[in-house]
Design a protein that fits this description.
This protein is an alpha/beta fold. The protein has ten helices and seven strands. It has helices spanning about 5-25, 30-35, 40-50, 65-70, 115-125, 140-150, 175, 180-190, 200-210, 245-255, and strands spanning about 55, 130-135, 160-165, 165-170, 170, 190-195, 220-225. The strands form two sheets. Strands 1-2-3-7-6 form a five-stranded parallel β-sheet, with helices on both faces. A two-stranded antiparallel sheet has the order 4-5. The structure holds thiamine diphosphate (TPP). The site of thiamine diphosphate has 21 residues, from helix 2 and strand 4.
């Protein structure tokens, strides 16, 4: 590992604070999924990805987490974070390819990122292609086409990580469109599957190392996470899917993120 677990945790805490600051300042954004994705993104950018590799964020609404991780890593200017979701900003509320170096795909419409990543993986066999998706995105038919495509072409350089926080836009995934045995579903589509705690750096990094050794199939890591992780009154509360905190809520959240 390049960093100790304590160092990674420190970065994750700063990313959570950045997420809150961005969404509070813009009075717009998606805190629940941003907060659940933090360890996945910190692990990818700080421990896992090499210069040859590419990352696709499919659930683009959680981009405050991505922007902050990119800033912490020094890939973008930290000052930019305060422009999040502003008119003309490089940091749109849903990322746009071409607007900011390092953003591979435009997102917002859900269920497209895996197809984009799979196409890239098919074309660039000499690099690993990582794609974060969410459980809510599994409602989209296009996503499952990409699942079939990746298996058919045995894209063993494609690694999908699902932010399995079990919440989506107006309730739980289970209420809105249950995914049943998600692990069994991926296995039946000939993917290599692992299930981990998506807030545990060691588990994320180990799972990716295993995924990199996959021979004949694409790999998916189902990362069980907590929606709103780190801010007690947001945790597991669907109303925080796309809501900005008011001043009092913001101060309380920042008090907890210390
Ligand atoms: C194709 C498409 N359909 C619907 C939406 C509206 N939408 C935005 S976010 C969302 C829920 C996504 O679920 P998930 O990513 O699991 O939510 P989170 O974990 O961030 O709360 C929906 C349905 C969309 N952006 N794109």
């Amino acid at each position: 590992m390049n960093h100790t677990t304590d160092e990674l945790k420190k970065i994750a805490l700063q990313v959570r604070r950045d997420i809150l600051e961005m969404i509070y300042k813009a009075q717009s954004g998606h805190p629940g999924g941003s907060l659940s994705s933090v360890e996945i993104l910190v692990a990818l950018y700080f421990e896992v990805m090499g210069d040859q590799d590419h990352f696709f964020l499919s659930n683009g609404h959680v981009c405050p987490a991505l922007y902050s991780v990119m800033a912490e890593k020094g890939l973008i200017d930290k000052e930019l974070l305060s422009t999040y979701a502003g008119l003309g900003s490089e940091l749109q509320g849903h990322p746009e390819r071409g607007r900011l170096p390092g953003i591979e795909n435009t997102s917002g419409p859900l269920g497209l990122g895996l197809a984009q990543a799979a196409g890239y993986a098919a074309a660039k066999k000499d690099s690993f292609i990582y794609c974060e998706t969410s459980d809510g995105e599994h409602d989209e038919g296009n996503h499952w086409e990409a699942v079939m495509f990746a298996a058919k072409y045995k894209l063993n350089n494609l690694i999908q990580i699902i932010d399995r926080n079990r919440i989506q836009i107006e309730g739980t995934v289970e209420e809105i469109m249950p995914l049943g045995n998600l692990i069994g579903r991926y296995k039946s589509f000939n993917w290599h599957v692992q299930e981990i705690d998506g807030h545990n750096f060691n588990e994320i990094i180990e799972a990716v190392e295993k995924a990199k050794k996959c021979k004949d199939s694409p790999c998916v890591i189902v990362a069980n996470t907590l929606f709103g992780k780190g801010v007690s009154f947001m945790e597991n509360k669907p109303e925080w899917h796309a809501r900005a905190p008011n001043e009092q809520e913001f101060n309380k959240a920042m008090e907890e993120l210390k």
